[in-house]
Design brief:
The chain has 13 helices and 18 strands. Bound molecules: N-(aminocarbonyl)-beta-alanine and zinc ion (2 copies). One zinc ion binds next to loops.
């Protein structure tokens, strides 16, 4: 008798906590049974010798995002989600960027219109808040939370984005009241501006100076300041795209002190260095992102942070700009580093890079890999247990990996985004997600896309689960220690 739509047989399954041998029975897009010798499925896939992992949750990527100066985002929701799926990711969380003169509702409606007809896998949204005025924080943000958008990013740098400390405190306080997750791009804008001005007036315009202008100290100072502000308001907060040791240890100290500070890092901080920006001509522009890649000591600090739990999430920060006049070279071949679009692609290789170099080289356990690439993000953004795990009742978002498959990264033949290059060209990797399921649908099989644009669904996020590292009430945020005055 056929009991399931699909049965995955004899695979080695891994979650964030366990590794076990089992069949997985899938019915109506969900995991209906996990066990030995399950009864028949209408379709069966033999996963003997393969790993079955939760599909990745990439909780930081930029798709179809408008830019301020006419640079084009190379990936829309079709090419971006296609590329993600080929790399074993089944959920993406791009940003709906607040547009001046538009309400958050209008902003989000525009992103829904961009994503709905194109997405191949499921997606949620974060907001980017650029103008956190009382109307936005008091009315519009609560309405967005009701619509399942429960997280937002703010910036401490970039001219038309940066918030000052007063604004950060105001936004933190709103996040605390609303139970939203605040994500912070922590770089000190004045340090970067001052260094950039000195460098460019001295004639130092090449891409390699991007890494000097975006100094480590700019990142670590802003990280510490953001943490101090979050501790003052006792608000859970995530520091995104952490690049280096000093910022990592600032997060670690805050966690040790019991604050609910979460950390995110990305492939570029494990696999690229500032030396990559120092290539002929403008070639180094391909590696310019903010914060920039650092050095081998920084890479080791990031690996340690992944292992010791400082980082909860490993995201791509896929920021797709072509190496042509639509993207990185928008200001021509004469452009200074200050004019280069910031960001590197990484949706497709995020998981294979970490699997090969992390699990394959013994730096991370398989369960840590799953936690970092899927489960923790699903928890942090209110999608767990529907996403990010293997459990009865969860969406059947699964990737079947050949852990021994050898792959040499070659953009032209194997990457499915629309960027035109990968910063990881020529790397030798071991392990690849061969078959990928999204809600029980086979979306990737035999290196072929089997799903239609528009078949991905919007995910209504619940409020974040702050039960990852637990925090404590900081004395300054305690009314009793403020002479009884309620500050927040
Ligand atoms: O360089 C980067 N990271 N670009 C993408 C935008 C952002 O700040 O995440
Ligand atoms: Zn950022
Ligand atoms: Zn980003």
């Amino acid at each position: 008798m056929v009991n399931f739509d699909l049965v995955l047989r004899n695979g080695t399954c891994a979650t964030a906590s366990d590794t076990f041998q089992a069949d997985i029975g899938i019915q109506d897009g969900r995991i209906a049974a996990i066990g030995e010798s399950l009864s028949d499925g209408a379709r069966e896939i033999d996963a003997t010798g393969r790993l079955i992992l939760p599909g990745g949750v990439d909780s930081h990527c930029h798709l179809a995002q408008e830019t301020v100066d006419g640079v084009e985002c190379a990936d829309d929701f079709e090419s971006g989600t296609r590329s993600a799926a080929f790399g074993g990711t089944t959920t993406v969380m791009p940003f709906a960027m607040q547009q001046p003169g538009k309400t958050l509702g209008e902003t989000v409606a525009a992103y829904h219109a961009l994503a709905g007809p194109k997405a191949i896998i499921d997606y949620g949204f974060h907001l980017i808040l650029r103008d956190p005025n009382p109307q936005v924080l008091g009315q519009e943000l609560p309405a967005m939370i009701e619509q399942g958008i429960t997280s937002f990013k703010v910036y401490m740098t970039y001219d038309t984005f940066k918030l000052d400390d007063y604004e950060l405190l105001t936004v933190l306080s709103a996040a605390r009241t609303l139970g939203a997750m605040m994500m912070v791009h922590a770089e000190n804008d004045d340090i970067i501006r001052w260094l950039s001005e000195k460098l460019t007036t001295g004639g130092h315009r090449a891409p390699k100076y991007h890494a000097i202008a975006h100094a480590r100290i700019a990142e670590s100072e802003a990280t510490r300041r953001a943490i101090d502000l979050a501790s003052l308001t006792d608000t859970p907060m995530l520091i995104v795209h952490v690049s280096d040791e000093a910022a990592t240890s600032a997060i670690r100290s805050a966690q040790t002190a019991g604050l609910k500070i979460f950390g995110e890092t990305c492939p570029q901080y494990l696999f690229l260095t500032a030396a990559d920006l120092d290539r002929d001509g403008l070639e180094g522009a391909k590696y310019c992102c903010s914060p920039p890649p650092r050095d081998s000591a920084g890479q080791e600090a990031i690996w340690r942070g992944l292992k010791n739990g400082t980082f909860q999430v490993f995201s791509s920060d896929h920021a797709p700009y072509r190496f042509d006049q639509t993207g990185k070279l928008r200001y021509g071949m004469d452009a200074s580093f200050t004019q280069l679009a910031n960001g590197v692609p990484g949706l497709e290789l995020r998981l294979p890079l970490l699997f090969s170099e992390g699990v394959g080289k013994g730096r991370l356990s398989l369960n840590e890999f799953v936690a970092l690439t899927a489960t923790n993000a699903a928890k942090l953004y209110g999608l767990h247990p529907r996403k990010g795990t293997i459990a009865v009742g969860a969406d059947a978002d699964l990737a079947i990996w050949d852990p021994n498959k050898k792959v040499t990264v070659q953009y032209e033949t194997m990457i499915h985004d629309d960027v035109g290059f990968t910063p990881y060209e020529g790397r030798h990797l071991t392990g690849w997600p061969e078959t990928v399921l999204s809600r029980g649908r086979v979306v990737i099989e035999n290196a072929t896309l089997c799903a239609q644009p528009g078949s991905g669904k919007f995910l209504d996020c619940a409020k974040p689960d702050a039960a990852l590292p637990t925090g404590r009430l900081h004395p300054e945020a305690n009314p009793a220690e403020n002479g009884g005055a309620r500050l927040i």
